[in-house]
Amino acid sequence: MSNINVTAIYDGEDLSRLLIINQGFSRGVIPDREITTFDNEDSIGSTFQSTRLKSRTIKMPFTIIDDTTEKRHKLAEILNVKEPKKLLFSDEPDRYFMAIPDQSVDYDDLMRYGKGTINWLCVDPFQYSLTEKTVVADDTNQINIHNDGNVPTPVSFEVMHSSDNGYIGIVSENATIEEGNLDEMDGTNYQLNDLMWLKTFNTTETTADFELNKFPSNYQPVSDRLSGHWNYAPGRNSDYRAYPTYAEGTNTQIWYGPSMYRAFTGTPNNWKIDLSLEVIAKKVQTLGVVEWGVVDAEGNLIAGYRIRKLNYKDRGLELHVLVGSDKNSNIMEKWDGNKTWIIKDYFGNMSIEKDGNYLRMRFNNETTSAPWGHSYLVPNQAQAAGFNFWAGSCSPNTRLDVSLFFVRCWDNSVGWKDSKNMFAANDKLTINCTDKLVQPYVNGLQALDIQNMSSKPILAPSGQSVIRFVNSNFAETPLVTAKYRERWL
After folding, report:
1. Do 6 and 27 meet the contact criterion of CB atoms below 8 Å apart?
2. How confident is the model over 68-81, as pLDDT tens digits?
3. 299: which DSSP letter?
């Protein structure tokens, strides 16, 4: 056995008092990557679509000398964790991985010593700085960032208001975050649509707010069986999600799955609804359909969206915009003039808004950076009754992964009123950014309703970069602080 001059600290415990790290220890250069391509049917080769970093595994052979039984039991106590913890190595004492032992730890008891191997699984493949950097904006509303890491890193913000303010816009070279109401830039009164209801799935609660399996889908394939229910669990970035649990079935000619329905408050003439949705086809063999939208009292679709996968040829999903419940209708739009977008996965917001005879449809698929929007002139629309969401499957082994993070609905036809400014003096606006999400909080309470749905996380590239912000012109300039943690591959 040949040891190396490196020690490890895990979850605050110095492992050097228990073991010696041996030759064969490896952190690797970069983690595995998943590369997605589409085959070119009419030409040679494939077309590159995207690449994604996967988890990292750190192999750490070790030896225990003297008091092997006692040290082995102590090591087992330290490694028995339920979630990833900080892992540091002595040759990089200012950086850490978030790691958890992968499955069991191989270990052999010999006469005077024991040896084994710990495979540290880092679901997040990056190595992070122990120190979080903070930068305060200067008197020109500019924040100068210096990222010594070798990959872009998310930047979060804290905004302390010294006066009333209606709007904060934060801009980098590649992304923008907007909180508040742009109409308040001049400080005059404005009209705000009234929130009928907001549903976030942030606890393991029941579907008490929804009617289960009330209405099926509208477009083909129509669900032959409304069955199953909805569960709740942590999803992307620990945000809670609702996901469908399907009843068992093996007949590929029958689509089955659960729906959830929630009525609007009153009978609004104009309305808006948006949600955050993730749909993933993990395998080529996956089949499934998701349909959601606004329906009338009989369950007929007024407008909505459908995401489906009906073939085994590739992992591509079809995305449709639906206007009207006529299954033979041609009112289905695509940005390329066709009836179908082909996408790999979907993650992002979708919205439907009625304003008189117009229906405005918008979505932003963050997996492809592909925002889209269009307005339709649809006279003589039925009275909207509520929101319906259905997920369908025809096989218990090849289902789409469906995650619904929140749904919110406004009444735009009643209750128009002058509003106070969005932010008051001494309000603290916190904007937490991850690689995929922007999460605003006002005085510690989550405030999704103040955020423009086109907002995207700001990632600071390696080296020098500049971030700027603006606020309402009637307001005093707030104190804006940027916070970020450098990271490395």
Report:
1. no
2. 889 989 999 999 99
3. -
Peptide bond into 216 cis (omega under 30): no
Residue-level pLDDT at 221: 58
Structure confidence by residue, pLDDT tens digits, 428-474:
999 999 999 999 999 999 999 999 988 999 999 999 999 999 998 88
pTM equals 0.52
Token look-up 């086809």 returns 281
AA letter at 141: N
pLDDT at 85 over 90: yes
In this structure, the dihedral spanned by the alpha carbons of residues 117, 118, 120 and 121, taken in order and rounded to 10 degrees, is: 80
CA distances (Å), 374 to each of 63, 323, 369, 371, in order? 64, 11, 17, 11
- Tell me the pLDDT tens digit for each residue of 92-142: 999 999 999 987 787 777 667 888 899 999 999 999 999 999 999 999 999
Return the number of other C-beta atoms located less than 10 Å from residue 242's C-beta. 24
CB 87 within 8 A of CB 121: no
Tell me the per-residue pLDDT of 204-235, one tens digit each, with 9 for 90 and over: 555 568 898 899 888 755 555 677 888 877 76
Q: Tell me, what's the pLDDT at 318?
A: 85
Residue pair 317/346 in contact (Cβ under 8 Å)? The answer is yes
**Residues 86-90: contacts with CB under 8 Å, at least 24 apart:** 86/9, 86/10, 86/11, 86/12, 87/8, 87/9, 87/10, 87/58, 87/120, 87/122, 88/8, 88/9, 88/10, 88/130, 89/6, 89/7, 89/8, 89/9, 89/27, 90/6, 90/7, 90/8, 90/9, 90/16
Contact status, residue 432 vs residue 446, Cβ threshold 8 Å: no
HSE-CB of 214 using CA atoms within 13 angstroms: 20
Choice between 284 and 448, residue whose per-residue pLDDT is larger: 448
* Both tokens assigned to 317: 């999903």
Q: Which long-range contacts (CB under 8 A, 24 or more apart) does 322-326 make?
A: 322/218, 322/219, 322/291, 322/293, 323/359, 323/361, 323/376, 323/378, 324/378, 325/218, 325/295, 325/300, 325/301
Residue 16 sits at the vertex; the CA angle it makes with 12 and 22, to the nearest 5 degrees, is 125
Q: State the residue for tokens 């225990």.
A: 64
Q: Which domains does the chain have, with CATH numbers?
A: 8-125 (2.40.30.200), 133-191+418-488 (2.60.120.860), 202-405 (2.60.120.200)
Closest CA to 97 of 105, 85, 109: 85
d(CA 147, CA 134): 11
- Report DSSP letters for 47-78, one per residue: EEEEEEE--EEEEEEEEEESSHHHHHHHHHHH
Higher pLDDT among residues 296 and 252, named by residue: 296
